[in-house]
Amino acid sequence: MNEEGNISDLPSYKKTHNDFKGAHTIGKLIKVFNFFGIKDQGLNEAFAKLPKLKDVENLISLPDRFNSQFAEIGWIAHESMNSTLIEKAVELAENGQKSKAEKLLSEHFTSTEIKWLQHRFRVLPAFSVRFELIEQAYKNTLEERFHSCVPLLLTIIDGAVNDISKSKGFFSENTELKAWDSIASHSSGLTAIKEIFNASRKKTNSKEIFLPYRNGILHGRDLKFNNKHVVGKCWSTLFAINDWARALKEEKENPPSPPKEPTSLKDSWKELTKAITEHQEWKVQSDKKWKELENWKPRENISIELENFKEFSPEKTALEIIESWKTKNYGKIAKLIHRISDKEINIGVEAGKIRRDLENKNLKSFQIKKISDNSAAISEITMDIDYELNGEDKTKEIIIRLICKDENGEMGMNGKENITWEFIDNFFFTLDF
């Protein structure tokens, strides 16, 4: 593929491949032992669960195959990317469904699926100093305010790389984006998409674009960039840059050393069986989730009558929010706000902030007009409200945007039980005018 070979040639990948080859060699020997009557039931059962070598080689080749399919359109494999997402996208692309694969990637990187990755930006200084901006970009993404989100993410990307390299930003011509044993910084990864994103854009273009052309967007030449493809590619790139920076830090603190003596068969076997078991469990759950997402459909003819609202529905939560405002239960509202961080919050402090936003706004009545399921995890409730602002009567249409999560705090699915809904508090700021 390039002068440094494939991603599968990286040291960590080679070790995994060799370990599995070794395990399968042992497996063949055990079959011979069994033939001569030397049996070990535990080992036989363990090897029965061991994936076929071709399946392991398939997994190891995924990042290379992913970059081969998607790098030219702005997506690259990186360490923090969900392995089952890579696998699914590659499978679709290699079966002639590349547009469906890109839609899958775009939906993933513009949803709450990326929330768990946000804590990664608190670790390294280049990202932690920009964490408030990253939070705002995440919020803009969920609100689908892509026009403001994309330029913000592009400046975060450029500034973070500038701090990491100590001299040049991501889009500078001679910026080195290399690190030892790193998927993200492989020459088919960050370096490849940097060239694409940094393309010259000399004419004003009013047609929709699907790549985050930095020069066209920030210099006002590309006008229609507000879509999930562009936003998703910005987020994916930011995560890849974080992975590259982590690899650089690891390389600096633990420089590559000569190969160690091979670990004992016993220890190798423990590592392998643990990795195999975890992958199999992960794949079962992921396959189930993909299937459910593919089969999910938005509800039709949703009743707007309050008495018909069901438990675990987004409209039920919207009703709780609006009634809590009416009764001035600011603590209840504070508990229902969607936040980027999972760290524990002080409800009293958060309720105080909401009180300051709403104390001069007295809700008098409301009427739900529309309920829309935008995706499996996002719904919008549109309503007309009558309220009093500093003694003056006001009427306004507001939209409460709600996000679903399951009992494990991951992205949930509308229609299931034991899910909760949180809302983005953007409508608060529309009430003052």
Describe the protein.
The protein is of the alpha+beta class and 433 residues long. The chain has helices at 11-35, 41-49, 53-70, 83-94, 98-108, 125-128, 131-142, 146-165, 190-197, 214-218, 228-253, 265-295, 314-326, 330-335, 347-358, and strands at residues 205-208, 222-224, 361-373, 378-389, 392-405, 420-424. It has 2 domains: 7-257 and 264-295, no CATH class; 306-430, Nuclear Transport Factor 2, Chain: A. The strands form 2 sheets. The protein has a 4-stranded antiparallel β-sheet, covered by helices on one side. A hairpin with a 4-residue loop joins strand 3 and strand 4 (378-389). The model is unreliable at 21-41 (pLDDT under 50).
Give the class from helix and strand content and strand pairing. Answer: alpha+beta
Strand order of the largest sheet: 3-4-5-6
Cα-atom Rg, whole angstroms?
Answer: 25 Å
Q: Gap between N and C termini, in Å?
A: 58 Å
* Estimated share of beta-strand residues: 5-15%
**Whole-number average pLDDT?**
84
Domains, number: 2
Mind summarizing the main beta sheet?
A: 4 strands, antiparallel
In N-to-C order, the SSE pattern is HHHHHHHHHEHEHHHHHEEEE
Describe the oligomeric state of these chains in a short phrase: single chain
Q: Helicity, in percent?
A: 40-55%
